Amino acid sequence: MIRVGIAGASGLAGGELLRLVSQHPDLELTFVGGSSNVGRRPAELHPGLRLPFGGLTIQPVTDEVADRCDVVLLATPAPVSASLAGLLADKVAAVVDLSGAFRIHDPELHARWYPRVARDTVLTDRFVYGVPELVADRMADALLISLPGCFATAITLGLAPLVDAGLRLDTVVVDGKTGSSGGGLQLRTADLHPLRDGAIAPYAPAGHRHAAEVRDFFAQRKSEAIGRLAMSAYGVSHVRGLLASSYVFTDQEISPQELHRTYVRYYKDQPFVRVRRHTETLIPVPDPQAVLGSNYCDVTPLLDDDGSRIVVLAALDNLVKGAAGQAIQAVNLRFGLPQTTGLTMQPVMPA
Amino acid sequence: MIRVGIAGASGLAGGELLRLVSQHPDLELTFVGGSSNVGRRPAELHPGLRLPFGGLTIQPVTDEVADRCDVVLLATPAPVSASLAGLLADKVAAVVDLSGAFRIHDPELHARWYPRVARDTVLTDRFVYGVPELVADRMADALLISLPGCFATAITLGLAPLVDAGLRLDTVVVDGKTGSSGGGLQLRTADLHPLRDGAIAPYAPAGHRHAAEVRDFFAQRKSEAIGRLAMSAYGVSHVRGLLASSYVFTDQEISPQELHRTYVRYYKDQPFVRVRRHTETLIPVPDPQAVLGSNYCDVTPLLDDDGSRIVVLAALDNLVKGAAGQAIQAVNLRFGLPQTTGLTMQPVMPA
Amino acid sequence: MIRVGIAGASGLAGGELLRLVSQHPDLELTFVGGSSNVGRRPAELHPGLRLPFGGLTIQPVTDEVADRCDVVLLATPAPVSASLAGLLADKVAAVVDLSGAFRIHDPELHARWYPRVARDTVLTDRFVYGVPELVADRMADALLISLPGCFATAITLGLAPLVDAGLRLDTVVVDGKTGSSGGGLQLRTADLHPLRDGAIAPYAPAGHRHAAEVRDFFAQRKSEAIGRLAMSAYGVSHVRGLLASSYVFTDQEISPQELHRTYVRYYKDQPFVRVRRHTETLIPVPDPQAVLGSNYCDVTPLLDDDGSRIVVLAALDNLVKGAAGQAIQAVNLRFGLPQTTGLTMQPVMPA
Amino acid sequence: MIRVGIAGASGLAGGELLRLVSQHPDLELTFVGGSSNVGRRPAELHPGLRLPFGGLTIQPVTDEVADRCDVVLLATPAPVSASLAGLLADKVAAVVDLSGAFRIHDPELHARWYPRVARDTVLTDRFVYGVPELVADRMADALLISLPGCFATAITLGLAPLVDAGLRLDTVVVDGKTGSSGGGLQLRTADLHPLRDGAIAPYAPAGHRHAAEVRDFFAQRKSEAIGRLAMSAYGVSHVRGLLASSYVFTDQEISPQELHRTYVRYYKDQPFVRVRRHTETLIPVPDPQAVLGSNYCDVTPLLDDDGSRIVVLAALDNLVKGAAGQAIQAVNLRFGLPQTTGLTMQPVMPA
């Protein structure tokens, strides 16, 4: 059994980690940490999870945690992750950070989007960043893993087949739509149910930091692959799941058939990416409700009538493939388990 | 492997059976049946379940199905179930019916609530009815199993500890609230999203047939246990999950502590019934969102301030513990597997 | 023009008062008060209401307010209302309180449900309480008006025809279902969208203070009319609108026809109460979505099959007929205007 | 009184027309037409509108209708509108069509997007198309008025200040998000509540016919103003209201201040367009919930950090400003009434 600690166990991603660890055959929960709710049992904070969790209660994270864990999952705010990563690096076999603290390697971009997150440059350089599908080999022996943001995961999985096929993406406009769970459980008036329900909330209409991750990642993977990438993000009126639409303008031509085939081939060995035709089932897909609760990312590439624009749609459950599920997937890769171990749950739909 | 056939695979309960069978280590899907959508693959009808299902397509149900299945699960409308049960009885090791065709043994009550469902009396008498928790022993060798309705499951699990403790329940008023998935996928204008969303729809305000099941069941278990039982049911504005509130008036006195203890003791060995205190977590429970996607039924007994009324709240996922999950649970019991096999998934919350 | 002041203008009821006053031909807003948000314009707090409101900003309520107002509407928490009513009584032509401070005349009941709301006994006795439909004559010259709670309004309008017809209601079980706007905009984790959406939240499962109002009101109107009255309340997954179901047990017999006629006759001259047949339109009614944004209360009386139970359903918009609309209706009555002035807006459905 | 007939009174836009006509001081409903539901009263079909409507029942539309009406509003499907317009043209003072039958003047574009809507070319040329704010003068004596689609209204109001300021918009990417009421009440499985709720449904991911209207309109207004315009549309999980995001790429520079001022000046005399700053109230705006039930269109222009992209957000209630409200506004203009007559209702929020 791999001994797992969770920091930030009170939040939504923390709760989802608890759910997935409890369903995983090879993981054993040995620590639950947090700065609030110290002394409380996880079940008090996560109404669905009425599990004993070995009697564990939430405790502050100290370096002694390393004695009890093989891996620590950080579902903490970025500034907290920045400091915990320093505390635990090299003391456990792996630190997996779900926050934005170590995602952007470019210092300027990082400072622009995470002005309050100071971090150690040497440490930062050691973090492996990326969706497991694209950097699986690097994760196998990574001591420090930084997982992409929920939108960044969807966008990256959506664009990678194009980039890796050698297309030059002159302009990419990303429109992201997410449910309210994307905002966590902070107490903000605008997130109370009466004001958040029924909303189309333009919370990041002219720029979103997940776009910076994506730019930074592809710039390192293949310089000049993407010209301009502009993103806007909206909160819509459901709870769980997101859809990222990438509108791609390129001078290179591609037929619809070729486009679809490129994606199918690219992901043919990836158990968690489902390349879907838009009309293959009784609702238009991809739709995040069709991945709810699962670790799937559904991807559909399309072409405008006149071939002038590629539209890539990618849907995922922001708390699973966009956070906790992807973290477990990374742990599986890191510890040599089959990628799907403990992650075989099918989507719960309708919900 | 136990070979499983599903009739009625196009509907919501059918889809949920597909999900659960695909996640079950000891079940093998060998047949998917239906009268509509013949020839289509299940994945076309269930957007979340993009699984090959062994290449099976939907086929009409004939008695040849018996050759391929050890158990057939009927997720069909009651009139269809009534005829399929006759077709398959004694040809497979077990028929499990999720419809209302064989739930009510009292002929008058049956005729009142299922006027269009003719059925064979001898066959009817052979059906074992009840929530698995209360009739587990009878399920072990039942050839024919009729599962309670979703509300009936919640109400029965809510009232059984009182009845079996010997209380006489003079008057029980049941108020049931369910999400839209309770109504299935029939094309009705009132169930289109614009009219159904935001509704509190009093669809059965002065009587509901699930109450008849409950009365009939308890009358057989313990005559005179319940005096009057009146039910009303409402559709509220979410998709999955129901809450049944039973307001119980009795002359016998019981303290809040004793009440809670009675329930805890009664269900202490039942893995799927969670007796919960109303305030034990950060939302008031039971709340169906805290069981979403799982086979749990959460039960909370309460007492009015002045002790004059017992309030029993029971929440479950109508498609799981109220339908498909309970069916798998019955199959587990019938075939001697641990009750929880394939049903250990934790609730997906928030969703 | 009648000069109107609003205290508690930041909250949901305050916002709704602003909406209705701005649409009223004979009312002029002369003061907006509150203890928080002092100095801010109402439009900053109410995203829909981008109106100048005569340049008014939120100011603390002092007795000088009386110089500027003919009537002050208190949309403040009960303890604040208790003190403001004392401050303003007899200084303005009318004080209309929307809180629970002065609803219950019975001191013991008041202390039980509002333990933290001390109030002046003499002042309390001067308050006229009740839904305008039932106490219109007393409102015509009332200096102090206390409006019923949202649920109390629905329950009272639902039961009054029975009580005033002379029926003895032995047992009444009330099940109330409301949207999230019923809980206001206080910052509570359980009310954040991810946890509140999809919920059936049993927030008052074994007793609700609005039942105390109803009992107190009918006891004064007709002693012994109601034997036992027990209430439970639930938050369901939409924003605006409530449904109160009253399950009435009585020894007296009444036919369905007689029952319906009793209600039709009783409310025939009341513009805001619509007595509706359950199946008169394409969704089952009453349903709060069919009154959304309007001052209507829809009422449907039904009888169980066997005549053993009367079911009275009453639906209203908790922010309009359950709060702000009813306040304006009271102001109309108090100042001799037609009851419907400024309140003729039709329901916005679907929404 | 202006005598108004409504064709297509059973649908959602028809219901909204009924609501608005009933609240309008100068309009008198003299005819309600439809091909389905003949003989039924409007109140049976519109649960919120329990109004007598002068005893009118739904009747087939014939040319005799012209005798009873000064204006006929067509809330009918495009093929029906195409034929009714021919029937009624020049027989009534005005025909106002809410469908897409006569929106696109370019024959090729029309054939591409409305292949099944044959129409008379001469008649088509006589139709005045456009949002009232931009073509008010032409509406004053128009016999035939074709109103823009709901998305087209939002996009056009969003882009007009830029186009009319002389900017050349090289590329415009429009992402539209709408609630389920945008799809009407046709019986489609995908629109049943269980499948539609919680969805982000990419129903028109690679092209939407409202974009063709917009292109056609601006091409006539100012040739070459817009280079490429590509649109995608999504159904999100609420009922009423839409948001259109226009991502504009231009070579011309404009500062954020100048941008905002351009819009404020442009719409300063327009009562229904509210130019709003993104953070001016407690939720990010524009958000369609802040215009619900009203005839407002809220518009917010923004600039990306680096000035490389203009983001124009426009929110409106698709059934009011996007359909019925705009129709009444057109009638007001046509008959010389103040534009806001009968349309002064404020948004109902939260809902």
From TrEMBL, chains A, B, C, D:
Report the SMART domains cross-referenced here.
Semialdhyde_dh
CDD domains on file: AGPR_1_C_LysY, AGPR_1_N
Q: Does the keyword NADP apply?
A: yes
Please list the residues that make up the active site: C150
Broad class of the protein's primary localization: cytoplasm
Its pathway is: Amino-acid biosynthesis; L-arginine biosynthesis; N(2)-acetyl-L-ornithine from L-glutamate: step 3/4
Q: What are the residue boundaries of the Semialdehyde dehydrogenase NAD-binding domain, all occurrences included?
A: 3-142
Q: Where in the cell is it found?
A: Cytoplasm
Keywords, A to Z, come to: Amino-acid biosynthesis, Arginine biosynthesis, Cytoplasm, NADP, Oxidoreductase
Q: InterPro entries this protein is in? A: AGPR, AGPR_AS, AGPR_dimerisation_dom, AGPR_type-1, NAD(P)-bd_dom_sf, Semialdehyde_DH_NAD-bd
The record's catalysed reaction(s) read: N-acetyl-L-glutamate 5-semialdehyde + phosphate + NADP(+) = N-acetyl-L-glutamyl 5-phosphate + NADPH + H(+)
Q: EC?
A: 1.2.1.38
PROSITE patterns, per database record? ARGC
SUPFAM superfamilies recorded: Glyceraldehyde-3-phosphate dehydrogenase-like, C-terminal domain (SSF55347), NAD(P)-binding Rossmann-fold domains (SSF51735)
**Any idea what job this protein has?**
Catalyzes the NADPH-dependent reduction of N-acetyl-5-glutamyl phosphate to yield N-acetyl-L-glutamate 5-semialdehyde.
What family does this belong to? Answer: Belongs to the NAGSA dehydrogenase family. Type 1 subfamily.
Q: What is this protein called?
A: N-acetyl-gamma-glutamyl-phosphate reductase
Species name: Myceligenerans crystallogenes
Which lineage is the organism of this entry classified under, starting from the top rank?
A: Bacteria, Bacillati, Actinomycetota, Actinomycetes, Micrococcales
This chain is encoded by the gene named: argC_1
